[in-house]
From TrEMBL, chain A:
Residue stretches making up the ABC transporter domain: 5-243
Localization terms from the record: Cell membrane
Short name of one Pfam family: ABC_tran
Main location: membrane
Keyword Transport (UniProt): yes
TM segment ranges: none
Record membrane topology: Peripheral membrane protein
Protein name from the UniProt record: Energy-coupling factor transporter ATPase
CDD domains: ABC_cobalt_CbiO_domain1
Entry similarity comment: Belongs to the ABC transporter superfamily.
Keyword Membrane: yes
Keyword list, A-Z: ATP-binding, Cell membrane, Membrane, Nucleotide-binding, Translocase, Transport
Automatic annotation (TrEMBL), chain B:
Protein's cellular compartments: Membrane
Matches recorded under InterPro entries: ABC/ECF_trnsptr_transmembrane (IPR003339), ECF_transporter_component (IPR051611)
UniProt key word Ion transport: no
UniProt topology in membrane: Multi-pass membrane protein
Membrane-spanning ranges: 26-57, 107-128, 246-264
Keyword rRNA-binding: no
Record organism: Sporolactobacillus mangiferae
Protein name as catalogued: Energy-coupling factor transporter transmembrane protein EcfT
Coiled-coil region(s): none
Amino acid sequence: MSVLIDMSKVYFQYLRNQSDNQWLLSDINLSIEKGEFVAILGANGSGKSTLAKHFNALLVPSDGKVQINGMDTREEQNKLQIRQTVGMIFQNPDNQLISTIIEEDVAFAPENLGLPPEEIHQRVDWALNAVDMSAYRLHTPFKLSGGQKQRIAIAGVLAMRPQCIIMDEPTSMLDPSGRASVLRTIHRLNTTFGITIVLITHHLEEAAQAQRILVMDRGRIVMDDPPESIFSQFELLHQLNLGIPPITLLTKRLQRHGIDLPANTMTADKCADAIIAMLEAHHGNH
Amino acid sequence: MARDLTVGQFLPGHAIMHRLDPRTKILLTFFFIIQVFLAKSTVSLCFLIILLFLFIFFARLSAGKVFRAVRPMIPVIVFTALINIFYVPGDSVLHFAFLHITKQGLFTGFTLFVRLTVLIVGCSLITYTTSLNALAAGLEQLLSPLAHLRVPVSELSMTLTITLRFLPSLSDEFEQIVDAQKSRGAFFDQGSPIRRIKSYFPVLIPLFMSAFRRAFELANAIECRCYHGGKGRTKMNTLHFAGRDIAAFLVFTALFFLTIIFNFI
């Protein structure tokens, strides 16, 4: 696998050369490979959104270097190519949709890229299909649910055929079913189309579904590990004001009472399986 | 309720008036306005009225609904007509104290009444039969030659599209803020007019704040989707004139000359 996003010694603050200001990002060294599914966890104000905006040149580092597919984000002529490579989805779907017709909204990015009409049509068809919203092609977004609007926003980014999509808390304004549908879509993009996903969230349950979790605190990356080892560092997560998922709490508690459960039980399904397996083994012995 | 704003007065349908290219409809509306002001005789004015009902018929709209659009304009129309009845000099028909009603005055008043009504109803037909998106697309393509004169046509149409998109969002938000302020004890429909106007400041300020916040977020979102102005942009759907558009132009030209001929009868 090859490196898609490469950051070395990145420091950032909005007003440069005001040395008494605290760095919003400091000493970030990071590389994300093609096809990865990475979650960025952190409390409010930990710098996760600021970091994400460096991935597609919305912000450029005050010091250090960010390279996307080898292109430096500080070079003005790379910007269009970088934004086409790395798409971004924001929290509020209402503020990302620009047209009153869904089809036109999805066509917006390919129109900006100056593609011929037939190619735009193909891409719109494909993108709407990929998020399972083809039936709404000629509808207006106003009447859709939050989850559906967010999937339209994802289709709008997909139409650029990006290699990577950054999701900045895409589910925080959605109801549980909308949230589930968006998360399912995100997974499908990663597994079916091999699109690199960077999911920013403060929900540990969402982060648990990634292959790798970065935990941020006050502008620094404090952990960078697979979910299993992140969730085993219970005390540290607590210190960083991150809510521990109830399943993890349950597992911990059972373990404390001497019940033998594996450490990697982050989802309800895995936990249930482990308990069932344990019970079966237990009963089998008697 | 607020959502209706997006569609304006547009009533979706499949009548011939709906299916015409928006550019045709825009151009023919201008054509019609000129025609209305060229009609001078009683015959040509009556011809216009007949035309109007024919248009309404071809748009498959109910006449009552269409004429409702004129309702807010009635005072203006009546006032303009009355002023003319009293002020145009000529052969006196009725004489009372300082008021003179003349034959010419009555005719001018009648002319203006018919012209203004026909004009407003005629123009409202385009908004009844064309969605705002189609109108914006039509305007953009009609104005596109101006891009050579460095008029930012594409940017203007983008602004228009975004405005249409966010109007209902802002109006929803307006209602929410009004409710929020009411629940904190604000009154909006009491006291003197000045007091009432003042009572809206606590609504407008949060509304502006949120509009700016939305604007920043939107700016980021469209930048992420490679928007870099109108340069090098293509369109997914371009408008094409069909046979019916040419037919409509021919019919309107004929009607135009008929109106002028009727002026001399």
